[in-house]
């Protein structure tokens, strides 16, 4: 009854506001210009595409977000720079309603046991492979485990981040069942050169640094960035060190055709101190992740598209460590994984008010994992593995081939319909997976939009779930879910105020869960889980005069089957001031009903106050300071891993 009441109240509120706007517009129209002139004005407003509203994640080609039935949140470069964070994820956790990211320290998420950086969106976890991270539309995840590597999501490479809140499997296939985080990389829009150097130092011997240069000259563009970050951590044996590099080059042959290529490599070394109740000794990870891609694109008035190829790889070396009561392990975990693919799409306007997009994807994923013995190992008095021996765990390859169609039509000046379907095949699934989505957008006066959508999401089991470690089960079937969403967005006061309301309902089946087996037997992964989530999301942002701006968002999530790292209530409110040489930003985040464990139940609630300050000493030199958790709250996000209390970073930025 509680969730039904929420839906009824939210729906009634949305339609009341929309009807109020419509009636107000009608009265104004009768007094001023008449129905025909107003209809023309509405049409003109739909044709004026605000560059900040153009997104690529919902359609794979630049589209005014107002014409999409899906909800896309955009975090721009200015917000990324103002965060003064080397990682994108803490900023996304603040700015995107319904999205939450786990943390365990001041810097670095790590991998394996005790890792943080798990991304959840509306209760669906990226750690389980149900949320896809893209870089310029290319999937980025560890092939064997099927989840993104959080420490590869770095700020220095991002021009903006688009978060599609809801299933995106029609366009992106498996792993996008809960949504998509698309990192759109840096670019140079004007002729000339620009170089930034940023360095900071602070609590727990933490260092962050970045250098980036961009250029554009007669159609040729290039970007190159390097970063180095490190910390001792706020606990013993919680050090983190990271090296990263990114480069991209492109050339515009003409007004309509262009090519580009890029490469991104990051390596990090992380330590895991273990939970405070059972500290670990010598738990360390060394991880290298890389990506290269290239593409050709075309852009005409009535058609646009492209062909893109990409290759991702990873190399992981992990020592899971041991407690003081146990002997060190005889082996280290090793893995390699690779993913390459090609995506082709073309979007065309067949007739007035229409847009048809047709595309195809081919993905190939393979990897191997093994234990490498670091000392002789005996079983029953006999030598089982000699030092240097490898014990293979898994060595598999799989392919995914799919085609999709998305059809969008403006039926009249105030209504847009969108429908799409994907036919997806997999090398180890014998049948075609059909993934439909549909929605409509109502374009109301006063820049108001009402959207309604229904979309299917799905996910193939990962190699880990099927072939690695005791819960493995090679007979697992794909997961699937349906998501239904109703939303209202409006821009007021000449664009100075924007607000949005979303309500959603998610129903999932065949979810993969680990089930205890018969007494004494190992547990088993089975398709017996369910997801039934519903909630409401609110967001607002606006400018207050010439120098002040404010933004806020709130999300409520009700889960019939609770999961960790998905708070019931998440609220953020922030304000910023920019005048002459000064820039100040501060925000408060409130988290309530956050499960750190579901067996037994353990929930956290906390309030975080963060602040940022920068001063432009000259045209080329800025000084900045960042403070996090300034209320010195004691809290945990990962069970057994207390977060640091108040931390401070300060630094300088050079701009040439």
Commentary on this structure:
By secondary structure, the protein is mainly β. It is 10% helix and 56% strand. It has helices at 2-32, 35-47, 77-83, 89-95, 169-172, 463-467, and strands spanning 54-55, 63-64, 72-75, 99-101, 119-121, 124-125, 132-135, 138-139, 158-165, 179-185, 192-202, 206-217, 220-231, 240-252, 257-271, 284-299, 303-319, 331-348, 354-373, 377-379, 382-385, 390-412, 415-426, 429-444, 448-459, 479-492, 497-515, 524-544, 548-559, 569-579, 582-598, 601-616, 621-628, 647-655. It has a 22-stranded antiparallel beta barrel. A five-stranded mixed sheet has the order 3-9-10-7-8. Strands 4-5-6 form a three-stranded antiparallel sheet. A hairpin with a 3-residue loop joins strand 24 (429-444) and strand 25 (448-459). It is globular, with a radius of gyration of 25 Å.
